[in-house]
Amino acid sequence: MAFEDVTVAKPTPETYKALEADLCNHSGKVPLHERFRALFTLKALADNEAVDIVGRAFADESALLKHELAYVLGQMKNPHAHAVLKQVLATKEEDPMVRHEAAEALGAIGHLDSIVILEEYLKDDSEVVVQTCELAIEKIKYDHRKEKEALPESAYSSIDPAPPTTDEEATEQLRAIYLNQKLPLFERYRAMFALRNQCTTESVLALADGFDDPSALFRHEIAYVFGQMQHPAAVPSLVKVLGKLDEANMVRHEAAEALGSIATPEVYPVLEHFKNDHERVVRESCVVALDMFAYENSGELQYADGLSK
Amino acid sequence: MNNVANCLQHLKPQRDDQMTHNTMADNHDDEQHNVQFEGTSSGASLTFPIQCSALRKNGHVVIKGRPCKIVDMSTSKTGKHGHAKVHLVAIDIFTGKKLEDLSPSTHNMDVPNIKREEFTLLNIDDDFLNLMTADGGNKDDVKLPDGELGEKITADFDDGKELLITIIAAMGEEAAISYKEAPKSG
Q: Are residues B78 and A5, on separate chains, in Cβ contact within 8 Å?
């Protein structure tokens, strides 16, 4: 990303130890949201040592934490994470949300060698895992195309599961591609990220129309991009998704965190309410989301503040 | 300009001094919120929105309603959603006062349209500069600057030198910021 502060000096071994103690909750007293902040501090470091620490945190029980670990390993784009990601993906007892994130992370790192690994899961029992692997394979193939497309500069530093559509700019046209269930998921995702980059009320409303899609993976990605866009027009649809008790956990979880990121005053009582949800992953997401809310509304510069403590 | 710049129009009317980031719903509007300044010859807007992440050091930005030059910028590390906060330190281009702001990188900030123009100094009249525009008209509404710059302009003008004064204009305000001796003709 163009504007990320890269002037992070290599921390001391003691700092790594402290970050690991926070992330892995060695004391048993570290609140979940602090563990997340430690995780994103490690994401910014992105070296092998940071990858190893994140890998060791998979011993935890929280699916929310573990899915975030896998996500961060992908975003670090460090192939040193391949071994642990493959292992997580192969663990069938693991929550599908965590396995999905491991598959997506292999796509984010983007090595051609990962394609054969991902192909093994195209008939997995979990539809979320199957669809993620399809997308990740397409993404890796795209990354290795001989003829590169010129992609517009994005305001977001994330490595996305698909690049934005480049040959269409009209919101209505992008919306039609995005909602067309007959098209390949990769193409629909590309339209989704193009709509994200537009970031207008119109594009938010077009994206919200996707919440009726039959794919939970697709619906969860909408909630994620809403968290990126921080556009208040997304709040009503996210509140609705979070409040839908028969919606998939990974979608409700993503909606909660997106609300924390948008951080307008009306989301606070909603997150407070669902902090008591019957689903653990939703409860925990609300805790993390309330911390994001606090950060967005604070005068603090750093969310990932593990180096300044 | 990138479409992204339409994102999250970030109206910042009266910001408090604690640099708190405020994502009130009414900060977000897809309509351009450029302030139109009636009476400028060009009819150009006083400011234009730009995504915070696209601001650069030594560029300009509006902070607390004042046109400023950015002297320092730092960007936070990113969290889950891949957006950062940007801390801006800037100097009011008219008063020299230091101002700070903290904004999400995805939000829009206003950039002042700044115009620099040179005028020939005709006279100094009761602390106002009598200037001549390029098309020969008169411009008498800019003050002689305070302090050393004003004293030097007065001294050189009294010596009979022909002076060109640079006037900076932004957000409906104008000031003389520098001057030089006109090149000798012939």
A: no
Tell me if B68 sits within 8 A of B98, measured CB to CB: no
User: Region A130-137: what's the mean pLDDT?
Assistant: 98
Please tell me the distance from the alpha carbon of residue A78 to that of residue A60, in angstroms, as a whole number: 22
**CA-CA distances (angstroms) from residue A17 to A13, A14, A24, A53, A306?**
6, 5, 10, 9, 11
CA nearest to B23, candidates A124, A195, A269, A233: A233
**Looking at A22-36, A262-276, B30-44, B155-169, which range is the least confident one?**
B30-44
Say which range, A47-61, B3-17, B107-121, has the weakest mean pLDDT: B3-17
Query: What amino acid occupies position B148?
Result: E
Residue of B nearest to A307 (CA): B77
Which of B77, B101, B109 should one mutate to test binding to chain A, selecting the residue with the greatest count of A CBs within 10 A? B77
pLDDT at A8 over 70: no
- Around B172, how many Cα atoms within 13 Å sit in the side-chain half-sphere? 8
pLDDT number for residue B34:
46
What ipTM does this complex have? Answer: 0.86
Mean pLDDT of chain B: 80
Q: Which residues of B touch A2 (CB under 8 A)?
A: 53
Burial class (CB in 10 A: 0-12, 13-18, 19+), B48: middle
CA dist., res. A21 & res. A23, Å (int): 6
Place of tokens 């998979």: A58
- To the question of whether residue A67 is assigned a binding role by annotation, the answer is yes
Q: Is the pLDDT of residue B27 over 60?
A: no
Q: What does the alpha-carbon distance between residue A107 and residue A93 come to, in Å, rounded to a whole number?
A: 22
pLDDT above 70 for B2: no
Per the listing, tokens 């965190």 go with A257
pLDDT class of A180 with cuts at 50, 70, 90:
very high
Residue A186's identity, in one-letter code, is: F
- Closest residue, chain A, to B100 (C-alpha): A299
Tokens (6 digits) for A41? 């501090």
Cα dihedral value B91, A153, A228, A288, nearest 10: -80
Q: How far apart are CA A256 and CA A32, in angstroms?
A: 15
Residue A149 in this model has a pLDDT that exceeds 60: yes
Contacts of A296 in chain B (CB under 8 A): 21, 23, 104
A295 neighbors A3 (Cβ within 8 angstroms): no
Residues A206 and A223: their CA atoms lie apart, in Å, by 13
Q: Which residues contact B183 (CB under 8 A, 6 or more apart)?
A: none
What residues pair up with B36 in beta bridges, in sequence order? B45
